[in-house]
Amino acid sequence: MKIVEVYTDGACSNHGATKGQGGAGVLIKWKEATEIEWEEEKHISYGFSSTTSNRMELVGMISALIYLYNFKEEILEVNIYSDSKYTINIINKCWYLNWETTDYYNKKNVDLIRDHYIPLYLALKANTEKIKINHVRGHTGIEGNEIADTLANEGKNKSDIHKLVDNYLDKGKNEKTSLSLFLNYLNKECEENF
Predict the structure, then answer these.
(1) pLDDT, tens digit, for every residue of 17-33?
(2) Which one of 10, 20, 22, 25 is the catalytic residue?
(3) pTM reported for the whole predicted model
(4) What CATH number should be reported for the domain whose range is 2-184?
(5) 105/35 Cα distance (integer angstroms)
């Protein structure tokens, strides 16, 4: 059984009110429960246009959960770290439970939260002995967080930002639909290749 440590991050060129080019980055490290040193690690980096920082933070977390879910039988314990209190509090402070009672009335990012983040987290939690989402302060020299930040910025800065996703996204669809299709594609890709 494996112990897994994950760092996720999101980045956006227009951090704030307007949409910009964004990226999501994930660092996943794992080892056998009996080992001291990390055995392997995986880096994940994606870029998107016309998005926001919070959406990219969510995409980073969801990408990690998709990857982890495909190995759920092998995982004993997962610690996920993010510098996004928004992303963490949706789970840790059970914001989503309150939002469900109002059918997410007047909430942003419902497509990502309701359709991907919550179901993936709950499914992984049901199949893993211990899963915890932790806050880590960003840009304070914590190695895993710095790597995830670098991966998110690499995704954001890719000049071929849509070459990866053009194969399965309909350019005529809006950004919410495109991200949803992308996450469904990522889940299928993980099932087939990992």
Answers:
(1) 567 888 899 999 999 98
(2) 10
(3) 0.84
(4) 3.30.420.10
(5) 47
